[in-house]
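Cross-check.
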Amino acid sequence: MICGDFNIIYKASDKSNGRLHRRMMGRFRRLIDDLQLQDLHLNGRRFTWSNERNTPTLERLDRVLVTEDWLSTFPDHNLTALSTECSDHAPILLRTDCAIPHFKRFRFENIWPKFEGYLDAVAEAWNAPLLRNDLDAFRILDIKLRATAKALKS
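Predicted model, tokenized:
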């Protein structure tokens, strides 16, 4: 693992404007590729540095680069940008002790509609009463889809 303020970016989306030093970006990207490193996803904000001007330039200069072995050793990691009060950089916090839930992806089986009772199982799960009435439309849809998937898998 390599972490810190690299003072350089390796992709255009790491900067808020189009003023890019493409040659240096290419060198940094090649170094990351040559060392077979992966950039950990940053939660909480897109950029970690600001030049703090009236029209600021924002960049992601602070990052954590890891190997495949590191990812295998710490599969449940979380990289978060914290609030900044006294610096032009946002501090980043890497946690390796968090348990991020891993859900099995639902896969619809084409054979299911041929089974007797398929439509009844779908209708029963879809039309099951909701335990709360104060849910938004997306949460209701999520609950109905999960219930239907569970009924189909059983």
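The chain has two domains: 2-95, 112-153. The first strand starts at residue 2 and ends at 5. Passed to J.P. for a second look.
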